[in-house]
Amino acid sequence: MPGSSFTPPADTSRLHLNRLHCHPRHHLLDLEGGAKAGCCWSKGFTAVHLGAIVATLWILMLNGIVGFQLLDDGTPLSLGLILGSALALFIGTGYIALDTAFSYSGHFDSSLAGQNRNIGLYVLYQLAPLLFLAGFFILEAVLVLRVLGEKKPMLYLLAAALLFAIGQIFQYVISTHICSGTNGKINGALFETLFTLLAVVMTWVFWSSITEDDWPMPVTGGTYT
Questions:
Q1: How far apart are alpha carbons 193 and 184 in whole angstroms?
Q2: Which helix (H) or strand (E) holds 199?
Q3: What is the pLDDT of residue 68?
């Protein structure tokens, strides 16, 4: 209608999703009703994603402990402890996320209003992975400098930490500016994913530099008798 402030429902949903897309905590807002224009599978996928992040970084920290050989690595006991604890974190985080999204028990309904504050998800998704990463870095630094007496691998570890930090800056600081400048077409997650991938590559390079695996070499030029 001319002169009216009425906004068509489709435009309202598009504007709402753009604001959600530009928010650095869009995963949590998606679970807590921020993306009501979306469907159930989006919230379910987000819950699985959050659980996978927590479990993966927990395994990364445990791999930092493995280097000290407190238990023989590769044994059923060692693998069972790592995978069992990671599975517990995955299920726990996933359940809280799903309960928040679909109100199974109603315990987290208070987080669906106001500023969408969910302490459980905040601790598991934001704080715990950061602590796991810091623990991995400290453990590996001690292993390399004190146990192995090496310095060069620290360059790879520091590079991995720097790349990861740059990715987080894109996600939490620069993302809103990118999103606003592109009218919601992209956000900082694109660059955060790239730099996180590079950090993973450097972590692999670091781990490869401190291991001394002997790979079997193929025998060539031999003759049969």
A1: 17
A2: helix 189-210
A3: 86
Residue recorded with tokens 């592109």: 182
Question: Where does residue 180 fall: left (phi above 0), alpha (psi -120 to 50 degrees), or beta otherwise?
Answer: alpha
User: For the whole model, what pTM was predicted?
Assistant: 0.74
Alpha-carbon span 53 to 48, nearest angstrom: 9
Q: How many Cα atoms occupy the beta-carbon half-sphere of 5 within 13 Å? A: 0
Tokens 């999204």 appear where? 101
Mean pLDDT (10-residue bins), the chain, 225 residues: 39 39 50 52 86 95 88 85 96 90 76 71 89 96 92 95 95 86 82 94 93 55 46
Record the tokens describing residue 220, joined without a space. 């060539």
Identity at 113, one-letter amino acid code: A
Locate tokens 């049969």: which residue? 224
Residue whose pair of structure tokens reads 């402030």 in the numeric block: 5
Distances in Å between the alpha carbon of 15 and those of 19, 21, 35, 196? 6, 10, 11, 29
